[in-house]
Amino acid sequence: MTGLSDRTALRWGGATDVGRVRTSNQDNYLARQDKGIWAVADGMGGHNGGEIASQIACQMLGEAFAEPTVEGLVDAIEAANAAVHRAGADDPQLTGMGTTVVALAVVEHEGDEVLAIANVGDSRCYRYAAGELDQVTTDHSLVADLVREGSLSPEEAAVHPQRNIVTRVLGPQDEVRVDVFAVDPHDGDRFVLCSDGLFSEVPEPAIAAVLATTEDPEEAAHELVRLAVDGGGRDNVTVVVVDVVGDGGRAAEASAALARDGGLTAEGRPEPRPSPAYAPEADPRRRARRRTDTAELEPVVTDDGDDDLDDDEDRPPRHRKRRRVTWRVVLFTVLLLVVVGGAVATIHWYGTSAYYVGFDGDRVAIFKGRPGGVLWVDPELVERSDLERDRVPRSRVADIEAGIEQSSLSDARRYVANVTEQADELEQRRAATTTTAPPTTAPPATAPTTAPPPTTAPPG
To answer: What number of CA atoms fall less than 13 Å from residue 209's CA on the CB side?
Structure first.
């Protein structure tokens, strides 16, 4: 498939796969040759939120990219962010959904045509030129920050348990910062836009080998996806390959100009001329590329991190930069969120990890939680028994009013059963003591015994 502009001819191919582990594909990609824009988005979120987020982002990016400029590309990505954010705010099941995005577009800048590459998150753009594969974009992820800091090696980052934590995505916030890069297109250059499902499974030398041996971009994209799936397929994988098949004679012009100065590369190719507003002295094939944030595009402001340009007073007014959020701030924010999140989770667990027996109105009941609740975690009624308050033994009333904690629901039920049994026994005793005994008949009174009269002896 070929996309043509005034000076740049591009050919592209794309492929995507759900992988071996996931049940749904939350990746999406955009290819609008009529507008000269391509993108890959990797969604995240519960239920089907990730799939919806990446779909919205790609659709809005294609619709909103109306002005073929660097600013127009950034505006389109910001519009995609706003669309994903609105969708998440309108549907409680989609709250917090987000997506990464990496995009490549043909744009005009200062009368010349360049390729603008923008990204948010850890979806990447690679450039394959003159037998070398370079990562153009910078990952917005926790481990990438630690690698740049020197705390982790790339090998350690590849297996780090928090390698999937991204520090910037479209959707969760109503505003987002976008990194933008620009390179001059040269005939024969190949660009790979991909989700992390590719480079998490396929090492960069293997990616370069496919690009070196597979000429058709469609076939190259499918082969890279196949390698990722065969390598484990633990995530969705999406790849878009964009080839420069014509640069309007730009390379020949540069070659002729540089040949006079001896400015040829070791491969006999002219050194590529970077876009002057982005990297006036850096080779765009190398990693020392300039980066811009959306807030700095007025119209284009560079920031390459050079020590000799850190002082704003030394910059021309157009190129003075605003203070950026550093990796330390990002790391501190992430760690703070982890600590706060852990505390919230601990409180919630403690507040719901037990049961207790108490009164619900005039009935003995079982509750899940802690008596009186813990901060914002209120106890939840589980079940009411048939035991009424006035039947509860007096020795148990105060304890039940305060709440008798039990370690499990079965323990709580046994406690209620014991109290009910005790109440039944007390009622039986009361019934036995109040039952009237049969009347006892007194024996008849005995008449007093009269002594016999004295015997009189006969007269002698």
So the answer is: 7
Please tell me whether residue 98 adopts helix, strand or coil conformation: strand
DSSP string covering 278-295, please? T-TTS-TTSS---BB-GG
CA-to-CA separations, 174 to 39, 140, 145, in angstroms, rounded:
21, 18, 23
Let me know: does 163 contact 154? Beta carbons within 8 Å: no
Q: Name the token pair of 226.
A: 């196949």
| Residues in contact with 411: Cβ distance below 8 Å, sequence separation at least 6, in sequence order | 355
**And the tokens for 341?**
């999140």
Q: b/e per residue, 227-252, with b = 16+ CB within 10 A?
A: bbbebebebbbbbbbbbbbbbeebbe
The angle, 0 to 180 degrees and rounded to 10, between the axes of the packed helices 70-90 and 49-64 is: 140
DSSP, residue by residue, 431-458 = HHHHSPPPPPPPPPPPPPPPPPPPPPPP
- Cα–Cα distance, 179 to 361 (Å, whole number): 61
Q: Where are the alpha helices (DSSP H) in 131-193?
A: 142-149, 154-158
> What is the pLDDT of the chain when averaged over all its residues?
80
| pLDDT exceeds cutoff 90 at 247 | no
Residue 269 has pLDDT above 50, yes or no: no
Measured distance CA(237)–CA(14) in Å, rounded: 11
Beta-carbon contacts of residue 412 (< 8 Å; ≥ 6 apart): 355, 356, 357, 366, 382, 406
Contact assessment for residue 331 and residue 145, using Cβ atoms and an 8 Å cutoff: yes
Among 136, 132, 133, which Cα is nearest to 266's?
132
How is residue 141 written in tokens?
A: 């992820």
Exposure class string for 269-280: b at 16+ Cβ within 10 A, else e:
bbebbbbebbbe
Cα gap 395→275, rounded to integer Å: 86
Exposed/middle/buried for residue 137 (C-beta within 10 Å: 0-12, 13-18, 19+): buried
Using DSSP's 3-state secondary structure scheme, residue 17 falls into: strand
pLDDT digits (tens, 9 = 90+) for 52-67: 999 999 999 999 999 9
Structure-model confidence comparison of residues 324 and 220, the more confident one: 220
pLDDT in tens, 123-142: 999 999 999 999 999 999 88
d(CA 337, CA 325): 16
Give the per-residue pLDDT at 103: 98
**Distance separating alpha carbons of residues 123 and 169, to the nearest angstrom:** 10
Task: Kindly state the tokens that stand for 72.
Answer: 């127009």
Cα torsion 321, 109, 238, 159 to 10°: value is -30
d(CA 171, CA 61): 13
